[in-house]
Amino acid sequence: MNIIAVDISEVDIICHLWEELNDYNNGLHQKYFGHELGERWEHKRQEFRSKAGEGLIKFDIVKIGDKIVGYCISSLNTLLSGEIKSIYILPKFRNRGIGTALVNEHITWLKENRSQSVFLYVHPCNTDAIRFYWKFNFFSNSPLMEICEAK
Predict the structure, then answer these.
(1) What angle do CA 21, 25, 31 make, to 5 degrees?
(2) Per-residue pLDDT, 124
(3) Which domains does the chain have, with CATH numbers?
(4) Closest listed residue to residue 109, CA positions, set 138, 85, 74
(5) How far apart are CA 59 and CA 8, in angstroms?
(6) DSSP β-ladder status, 67-76 and 117-120
(7) Nearest to 70, CA basis, from 97, 38, 42
(8) In angstroms, rounded to a whole number, what is the distance separating the alpha carbons of residues 2 and 93?
């Protein structure tokens, strides 16, 4: 396993992985809320690139052999708030320590760059991801709930 730092201008190399993650989250959303999230790669690509203009950004991929099996993107804004923007490991390569290595790498990077806090967003129905993040002491800090009408 090799964790490789990549310039955010090359973010399209993870398009297929992000779309797989998006399909999974859309499936959860469809099942529990009756509609998809509606996010598309073109929008997400622009979001990642614009974050680089607002502050620091870290983009790593994980390769096993010649295959990209995962990635993580984190950002630090001008208020020194750190966010793990997106992380994904192909299912076939999970439970090998790859996700743990990526999250640890990104938390360390954020703290080294004076992050006052580190947060992430996770789909509320993605219980596997929520349990994974508990290992790093991520917990929900908001009782916010929203009515999501089925369409």
Answers:
(1) 145
(2) 85
(3) 2-134 (3.40.630.30)
(4) 74
(5) 6
(6) unpaired
(7) 97
(8) 13
Q: Which of 126, 3, 26, 138 is nearest to 73 (CA)?
A: 3
Q: CA–CA separation, 136 vs 80, rounded Å?
A: 19
Number of residues assigned to the chain: 151
**75, 74, 72, 73: which is closest to 55 by C-alpha?**
75
Of 14, 9, 10, nearest in space to 102 by CA: 14
CA distance 51 to 98: 24
Query: Parallel, antiparallel, or unpaired for β 67-76 and 2-5?
Result: unpaired
pLDDT digits (tens, 9 = 90+) for 101-128: 999 999 999 999 999 999 999 988 899 9
Residue (of 104, 107, 97, 105) closest to 76 by Cα position: 107
What pLDDT, on the 0 to 100 scale, is given for residue 151?
Answer: 47
Q: DSSP class of residue 124?
A: T
In Å, how far are 18, 32, 65, 109, 132 from 74, measured between CA atoms?
14, 28, 24, 9, 17
106: which 2 tokens?
Answer: 């990104």
Amino acid in the structure at residue 2: N
What is the token pair recorded at 107? Answer: 């938390």
